[in-house]
Amino acid sequence: MTNYAPQLRVPATYMRGGTSKGVFFNLTDLPEVAQKPGPARDALLLRVIGSPDPYGKQTDGMGGATSSTSKTVILSKSEREGYDVDYLFGQVSIDKPFVDWSGNCGNLTAAVGAFAITNGLVDRSKIPENGVATVNIWQANINKAIIAKVPITNGEVQETGDFELDGVTFPAAEVEVAFVDPADGEGAIFPTGRLVDTLEVPGVGSLQATMINAGIPTIFINAEDIGYTGTELQDDINSDFEALSKFEAIRAHGAVQMGLINDVGEAANRQHTPKVAFVAPPRGYKSSSGKDILGSDIDVLVRALSMGKLHHAMMGTAAVAIAAAAAIPETLVNLAAGGKDRESVTFGHPSGTLRVGAKATFEDDKWQIEQAVMSRSARVLMEGNVRVPPEQL
After folding, report:
1. In terms of CB atoms within 10 Å, which end of the chain has fewer, N or C?
2. Catalytic residue (one of 105, 211, 258, 314)
C-alpha cells in the first residue's frame, strides 16, 4: 500500500457577497509559497475551488460550477495610508487551469469589509459599538479605492436584517458600497475616445457598441441588433451554443478595440474581462423566480455575460459600468434608458431589479465619474479550514 501525505489545512471563510459567493483567505494564513503571486498560489486556489473540471461541476472543490460561485478572495492589512485592507480577487476558470486576476468582483466586495473587521484587519478604534463602520478598501487588481459601510451591533458585524436583494433568496443586513473614481488608472473611461463605436465582428456583422471602463471593462450593445428583446433569462441563452459563440466573438473583438488584448486569440486567457452586455428600453417581464417586473418600475433592461454564460442577476462591477454609462448622455445605455440626464438608474436583470447611482462630469475634455454607489448584502456561510492535497504546491 502506498502512503500518501495528509491534506493541508488552510484557514478560510466561505462567504456570500451580493449575488456571488467565494472562498476568502487572510494572506498570512496561506502556505508561505502561496503568499506571493505565481503558479503555486494559482494551483492552490484551483484545487480549493475544484478546477479544472472537465465535467464542469467542480464536485471535488468549493466551487459551484458557475461564474458567480467560482471565486476566491485574498485579504491583507493595508500598508497604504488611508486604507484598512487590500483586496485581491481571483476568478477561477471552471474547466481550464486558469485563475484570472484582471478585474474586480463587485458583488464579493460587499463581504470584504465584514471579513476584514471580523479577522482583525481593521483597527478596533474604527469600529463603533453600535452603528456603521466605514472600511476603506484598496482593490489591488485594478488599483482603485472602495468604501464599504458595514453595520455593527454590540461591537460585531451585523449580518441579519430585512434588506432584500433580487437574485438572493433570503434578506440580510444592507451594506452600502461606493466605488471611487471607477474608470481605469489613467481615467480613460472610454478607451476608444468615443461614446459609441462601430464594432465589426466576423460572422456576426457590424454592431453599434458603447465600450466603457468603469467598474470593469464592459461592451454594451443593443439587444435588438442581435435578435433579442432584453427580457431573456439564463436558459434562453446558456442552452444556445451558437449564441454563446456569438457573444464570445463580440467580446474578443471588443477587447481588441478597447486595447485590452492585441489579438482575438488572447481572449481565451482573459475570461473575466471585458464583459458583454445587451440593453433595451424598459418593458415588463417575468423574472427567474416568477416575479412580475413592471416596465414602469425600471429605466432600462440589461443582460450581461460572465465567463461565457449569461449571469443569473448582475455582476456588481458591471452594475457600476451600467450606472456610469447611463449617466453619460448618448451612450447606448443612456439612450435605452430614455436619453435624459440622470444620477441613478434602476435596471431590470434576469432575477429582478437593481438601483445604482453615479454622477458624471465632463472635465478636461473627458468624462469622469466621482463614484458609483449601490447597496448589497453579505454573510458568512461557513468558516474553518479548507483542505488541499499537498502535491498541489
Report:
1. N
2. 105
Q: What CA–CA distance (Å, rounded) separates 179 from 107?
A: 12
| Confidence label for 367 from pLDDT (cuts 50, 70 and 90) | very high
Q: Render pLDDT for 121-138 as a digit per residue (tens, 0 to 9).
A: 999 999 999 999 999 999
Predicted pLDDT at 184: 66
Please identify which residue in the block is written with the cell numbers 444556445: 240
Q: Looking at residue 80, what DSSP letter applies? A: S
pLDDT of residue 185: 55
pLDDT band of residue 187 (cuts 50, 70, 90) is low
Q: Is 315 a catalytic residue?
A: yes
Give the least confident one: 101-115, 167-181, 187-201, 321-335.
187-201
Number of helices (H), then strands (E), belonging to the chain: the values are 6, 20
pLDDT of residue 188: 82
Whole-Å CA distances, 237 to 34, 95, 241, 304, 312: 38, 19, 8, 11, 11
DSSP 250: H
What are the tens digits of pLDDT across the range 64-103? 999 999 999 999 999 999 999 999 999 999 999 999 999 9
DSSP code at position 172:
B
62 annotated active-site: no
Note the pLDDT tens digit of each residue in 169-181. Answer: 999 999 999 999 9
Q: Which of 258, 307, 315, 374 is catalytic?
A: 315
For residue 324, what are the contacts with CB-CB under 8 A and spacing of at least 6?
Answer: 182, 183, 189, 212, 214, 215, 358, 360, 369, 372
Residue 142 near residue 214, CB atoms below 8 Å: no
Q: Which of 101, 92, 103, 97 is nearest to 66 (CA)?
A: 92
Cis peptide before 6 (omega within 30 of 0): no
Q: How much is the CA Rg of the chain, to the nearest whole Å?
A: 20
By CB atoms closer than 10 A (0-12, 13-18, 19+), residue 103 is: buried
Helix (H) or strand (E) holding 100: strand 99-100
Residue 351, helix vs strand vs coil: coil
- Cβ neighbours of residue 390 under 8 Å, at least 6 residues apart? 5, 6, 7, 8
